Amino acid sequence: MNEKWLKIPNDIALLLFSFIICAALQGASHLFSAPELHGMLAGLEGFQFESYLLDGVLCFMLFAGAGKVRFGKFTSNLKAITLLSFLTTAVSAILYGILFFALSCLLEWPLDIWLCILLGCIVSPTDPIAATGIMNKLGMSKNVTTVIESESLFNDGMGVVLFAFVKGLVAHAGRENFVLLMLREVAGAAAVALSVSFLLFELFKRSRKPMNHIFISLFAVSSIYVICEGWGFSGVIASVICGMYFSYATEKISRYRQVVDPGDTYAQFWDSIDGILNSVLFVLIGISVVRLPLLQNLWIIAAAAVVIGLVSRAAGVALPALLSPDRVIPGGYSLWEFVALMTWSALKGGLSLALVLSTRAFLKPELYNILLDAAYVTIFFTVVVQGLTTKRVYRLIERHKARRIQKEGLTR
Question: How many CB atoms lie within 10 A of CB 104?
Answer without folding.
Answer: 20
